[in-house]
Amino acid sequence: MTKRLPDFPWDTLADHAAKAREHPGGVVDLSVGTPVDDVPELIRHALAGVAEQPGYPTTHGFPRLREAVAGALARRHGVPGVDPAAVLPTIGSKELVAWLPTLLGVGPGDVVAIPALAYPTYEVGAKLAGASVVRLADGEPPPEGTRLVWLNSPSNPTGRVQGAAALARAVADARAVGAVVASDECYLALPWEAEPVSVLRDEVSGGSPDGLLAVHSLSKSSCLAGYRAGFVTGDPSLVAALLEVRKHAGMIVPRPVQAAMTAALEDDGHVAEQRERYRRRRAVLLPALRAAGFSVDHSEAGLYLWSTRGEDAWDTVGWLAERGILAAPGTFYGPTGDRHVRIALTATDERVAAAARRLAG
Ligand SMILES: Cc1ncc(COP(=O)(O)O)c(C=O)c1O
User: Fold this and answer.
1) Ligand 1 centroid to residue 83 C-alpha, Å
2) DSSP string of 75-93?
3) What is d(CA 67, CA 268) in angstroms, rounded to the nearest whole number?
4) N or C: which end of the chain has fewer CB atoms below 10 A?
């Protein structure tokens, strides 16, 4: 069988991870954006509360869950009027990202457009479908033949926020070639120096969800990475098409996770608390990096500090590993990331403080 997927990039970090683990104070792993704070009590309670129920859950998601999604989008992100029928829960967002081109019937001869620096699974999804990939520079319109355009603001890995006007232009450019827009809004709830907006806001969508999908994850905003909890909403006809295939294919969110998601989406307090934890960690790491000679670019929202010492990314990964700090090289996200590293805010306060001390010393 010919190799159709890229190498799994994290394997190439193994030597640096081993080096960082040798540090007498232990490793500070800022390479992966995995949550470290406890799942909030109200969510655990909701999960356990349906543990005895034996029946199949619905692929479409229970009505209360879909209403909770619509409510959260209105309250948290200024997107009122989402029709709960056009909401679909997903088993985390990574599976949807990886399978979206296939589920939409994108295939050989089609193009999937992704940002120049992007979450690697956009490319993986295109390859699983047999489509080709183009990486678009900022503001560059997708070429003819593009069936799907991925947007991601705030961005992984750069933390860049595209304003409403830039997103509206990207939507217009995609619609002009007949492409669906999938907006990965996984970090929308983590604004620092800029206010990210959803693709479903009227000033971006032009008042119509036609051709638009907003992809959301509860992994970061509600510390639910381990539960696998996400959803997609937007154009009702696209969501209906996804639902049809997912029903046949058994892509169903387990009932306890649907219950947990409902509780998480009905409560904004824990999201605010988690945001403050990340804000505190950012307030320690950002000045520590700058004082150690790094420039931090973009990073105005989301979970990452896109940092450079003006040298090859792997040299910086090595420099940090000497200090027991593990970061991801920018090349994991695209060729133009070759002089940056991605530093995640996802470590405990104690580990973040340790990283700051090491950077200072
Ligand atoms: C941009 C982006 N999209 C999607 C995901 C997938 O998140 P999950 O599958 O946990 O919902 C991630 C995870 O880090 C991400 O960074």
Assistant:
1) 24
2) HHHS-----GGGEEEESSS
3) 15
4) N
Return d(Cα 91, Cα 98) in angstroms, integer: 11
Predicted confidence (pLDDT) per residue in 171-212, tens digit = 999 999 999 999 999 999 999 999 999 999 999 999 999 999
Q: Is the pTM higher than 0.90?
A: yes
| Distance of alpha carbon 72 from alpha carbon 78, whole angstroms | 9
Alpha-helix residue ranges (DSSP H) falling in 83-199: 94-103, 121-128, 164-176
Distances (CA, A) of 131 to 105, 238, 239: 10, 19, 21
Q: Which of 155, 69, 107, 67 is nearest to 333 (CA)?
A: 155
Pocket test for ligand 1, best of 217, 218, 306, 345 (most atoms within 8 A of CB): 217
Q: Of all atoms in ligand 1, which is nearest to the CA of residue 218?
A: 11
Q: Which of 135, 328, 148 is nearest to 235 (CA)?
A: 148
Query: Pocket residues for ligand 1 (CB within 6 Å)?
Result: 33, 92-94, 97, 119, 152, 156, 184, 186, 217, 219, 225, 230
Mutate which of 10, 93, 161 for ligand 1? The one with the most ligand atoms within 8 Å of its CB, which is 93
Strands 146-151, 325-326: pairing kind: unpaired
**Residue 93 alpha carbon, nearest atom of ligand 1:** 11
Q: How far is the CA of 46 from the centre of ligand 1 (A)?
A: 23
Q: Find the 184 Cα to ligand 1 centroid distance in Å.
A: 8
**Digit-coded pLDDT (tens) for 264-318:** 999 999 999 999 999 999 999 999 999 999 999 999 999 999 999 999 999 999 9
Distance CA 221, CA 272 (A): 9
According to the model, what pLDDT value does residue 11 have?
Answer: 84
